[in-house]
Amino acid sequence: MTDRHLSTRERILSAAEKLFAEKGYKETTTREIVREAQASLSSLQAHFQGKENVYFEVRCRAIEELYQFMRPSLDEVAYMDSRGLLHGETAWNLLYELLSKYAEWCFDPKNRHAITLIGRELLDGAPVQGLPEEKVESSFAAMRLLCRRYMGVEEEDWTVLVGHTVFSIMMGMSRTSYRDTRPEAVHFKLPQSQEQVKYQVKNYILLTLRAYLDIQKAALQENAAPSPRVDTIEPG
């Protein structure tokens, strides 16, 4: 049950996040939320005016927490880019830092319900409108920029796909490893601790991404290289 020392509003939000993650938005009722929160329907109505607003606040809180956690790295990317220093290994080091911080957030047990909610939204879409998606998009945008700066190109459409793939894989692996929020995880018996899983997933993604970027970079350089000159001999 939810901690009684929290305010009624916080207890409702925490209980709702847990139930939305476990059952989904449609299958969760306001009565279940207030029962889990040890609150009343009238208090839920007074604070949120209904289930839709509860979900909105739950997701806004999770988005803001992730954004504030990532913000120092995002600010550093913007600063280095504004100074014209975002290229080569500098870009890669910041990309490494960005993904490492994202791994820390994904594999932090306190975020397990928020991660499950994001996973549901990726499959079914958000059940409410107006979420601050620009804060979520900021991490994707920074990753795309860092990939391009590392390779020395201005625009590459594939970076959109790579960014979403990397974040989705990391989040999906962390979600599966939380056995209390994903039914299929009971059958996915990881032989390692959560910390070991985080280490393996993070390093696999970073090594794979570096190799992929280097392959793409080499291909671009090869295509940009001038063709060898072929001298022709004029008939005498």
Describe the structure.
The protein is an all-alpha fold and 236 residues long. The chain is 70% helix and 0% strand. The chain is built from nine helices and no strands.
Can you lay out the helices and strands and say which pair or pack?
Layout: H1 8-23, H2 30-37, H3 41-48, H4 51-82, H5 88-106, H6 112-124, H7 133-151, H8 158-176, H9 194-224
Helix pairs in contact: 1-2, 1-4, 1-6, 4-5, 4-7, 5-7, 5-8, 5-9, 6-8, 7-8, 8-9
H/I helix tally: 9
| SSE ordering | HHHHHHHHH
Derived from helix and strand composition plus strand pairing, the structural class reads: mainly alpha
Content of β-strand = under 5%
C-alpha Rg, in Å?
23 Å
- Beta strands, count: 0
Poorly predicted segments: 180-186
* Alpha-carbon distance between the two ends: 97 Å
Largest sheet descriptor:
none
Q: Calculate the mean pLDDT score and round it.
A: 85
Share of helical residues: 55-70%
Shape: elongated
Overview features:
about 240 residues, mainly alpha, about 70% helix, 9 helices
Summary of the model, kept short:
The protein has 236 residues and is mainly alpha-helical.
